Description:
By secondary structure, the protein is mainly beta. 13% of the residues lie in helices and 46% in strands. The longest helix is centred in the first third of the chain and has 27 residues, at 2-28.
Amino acid sequence: MKFIRKNFKKSIILILLCLILGYVTNITSIPERIVIFENEKLNLGQIFGITIKEKGDSVIQTSNIDNKVEEKTVTLSLFNIIDLKDVKVSVVENTKVIPLGNIVGLKIYSDGVLVIGMTEVGGVKPYEGSNIKEGDLIVSVDNINVTTTKQLIECVNASEGKQIEIKYVRDGEEYTTNIEPIKTSNNEYKIGLWVRDGAVGIGTATYYNPSNGKIATLGHGIVDVDTDSLITVESGSITNARISKLKKGIEGEPGEIKGSLIEDEVIGSININTQFGIYGNVYYTSLLDLNNTEEMEVALIEEIKKGPAKIILALEDGIRKEYDIEIKKIYKNNTEDNKSMLIEITDDELIEKTGGIIQGMSGAPIVQNGKFIGAITHVLINNPKQGYALFGETMIKQMNN
């Protein structure tokens, strides 16, 4: 009997600890800065006992934040007794953008060189004991900044076999280590690391914001294929692209827009690569071909409805066309990833051309009832007519964040 009571007490304590851990995790997961639109309520989810108050003031309702201010600090409080953390709330004006649908080229150079593999040099592992591993980002050698593979090779060769100091970044933290390069039969020096300094590809431009000259593309980030992590941007460019072929998607095998970058038609820069898209500045609006386009308001999540909508794409001769889709499901509370809506291509012409959603269409803008509501992000491999899309509201907030 004592044994049962003891186990029962342990179980109760364990359950309480789990509840406390979950509660603390919910609080700490709330970001330090939140962006909302005018007239949008501040939604921090349902956390028992949490009240929101302006810094040092009384409790406020989530709908009562003064939307005329650009930024306000609010305090999250437990039962209005214990202050837990401060959150900065930025309010942005209801935005108008020009949905695009252009197929563009994307070229990204990383902030450092990414380690993607390791190899022996003359039967030796020079990196052994250095603690460097795949996914680390080398940012300097002997205090010389490194942003390309060419620069890394030059620094290693300049050592002439003497020990070099390497600074690298892992999970946002910077570390320092040392490696002694090995001389090869070609009189070159190697450290046994395979590295990459960027990525190149094509995708779809989502929208242009005339009020600030910024552009959004893809609706998802560019991830390194070897490390499955977002590439950190040091610099990059958005160019026009030339479509060479549309590979039709079939069940179990995604299709693809095949094409090439037009190197001398640089539309603008890439500033940041995020899980919610790639964002940058436009240099030459003439290269976007904004004729016959119009600004549209960005719909709030609450305004999006299941049912008919349209996507905009320029698949032939750079001419934008609208194609019919249906919004099957809306995940209104999902702001954690870029699968906010389940959509289906219903347009016979587009299905004939592509089979549905194909690689390269990520970023295609979606409009409904005269408003921009989001962008395509994924295709369902087993049903290429269906895929996921990201809320336009999320993209605007990401750009303003």
